[in-house]
Amino acid sequence: MIQALFGKEIIHLSEIDSTNNFAAKLLSENLCQNGSVIMADVQTQGKGQRGNIWLSESGKNLLSSFIFKSDNLSVDRQATLTWATSLSLIETLRKFNIEVQVKWPNDIVVAGKKIAGILIENQLQGSKINCSIIGIGVNLNQTSFENLNATSLLLETKKTVEPKSFLAFLAQEMNLLFQFDNNSDLLKKEYENNLFQMNELKRYKDENGEFYGKIIGTSDEGKLIIEKSNKIETYGMKEVVFLDI
Ligand code: BTN
Known about the structure:
By secondary structure, this protein is α+β, with helices and mostly antiparallel strands. It has two domains: about 10-195, Bira Bifunctional Protein, Domain 2 (BirA Bifunctional Protein, domain 2), CATH 3.30.930.10; about 200-240, Roll (SH3 type barrels), CATH 2.30.30. Helix content is about 25%, strand content about 35%. It is built from five helices and twelve strands. The protein has helices spanning about 20-30, 80-95, 155, 165-175, 185-195; strands at about 10-15, 35-45, 60-70, 100-105, 105-110, 115-125, 130-140, 200-205, 210-220, 225-230, 230-235, 240. The strands form two sheets. Strands 1-2-3-7-6-5-4 form a seven-stranded mixed β-sheet, with helices on both faces. The protein has a five-stranded antiparallel β-sheet with strand order 11-10-9-8-12, with no helix packed on it. α2 (about 80-95) packs across α4 (about 165-175) and α2 (about 80-95) packs across α5. The structure holds biotin (BTN).
C-alpha cells in the first residue's frame, strides 16, 4: 500500500516572498513535518534556478514547496530527488493529455517550451541530506509570458484547472515516486526515457564554443552526457547551453 506523505498537510498562503523560503523558516522553527506542502497564490520574490526570479501572475499558477525528509539519502544520490520530481510532474501533466519532456536538468517542457520548473534546496548533515525543500512552479492558467519561451496548461489544452486540484494530482504521483529506496536506477532510466533531445543531433555550447552533439544519457550524479564528434563529454550545471530551442 502507498502511504500518503505529501498532501496530508497543505499550508495555503495568499501572498509570500517565496514558498521555498517560507518552508525553510517553518523547518528551522520545527513547525512542519515530513510531507508538508506550502502553496501560495502569489510570490513577491519567487526564486528560480541559477539565481533567477520566478514570475507568476497572481492566483493563476501552482506555486508550491514540498518538504521531504529522506531516511538515509546521501548527498551523492541527490539527483534521485530531481528524477522523482521531474517524473511526477511529467506523469501529472500527461493525465491532462499534455505531451511533456524534461529538459536537463529539470525544466519540464512541451516541445521545448517551459511549463514547469523545479528548485530543490537541500539541508545537509555531513554527507547526508537531512531535509529537502522541493519547490515546484507549474504554469496553469496564465496565457502570456512576455518574451519567455514558456507555455501553460491552459494554452496547451484550452482548459483551466485550479492550482489546488492540480496539486492534489501531483501529490498523488509524488507519493508513488518518492518511495525510491532501492529503485533509483529505475527512476534514472525513466528520466532518461523522457529526456528532451535524447539521441538527437543538436547544437550546444560549452566553454570551447558551439558544437553539434547527441545527448546519450545522464550520470548517476545527474550530469549530462553528450557525444561530441566521437568524444564523450560530461557536463554539470551551467557548463553547457542548449542552442536549438
Ligand atoms: C526554475 O527556474 O525552473 C525553478 C523554478 C521554481 C519555482 C518554484 S515556485 C514555488 C517555489 N518557490 C520558489 O521561490 N521557487 C519555487
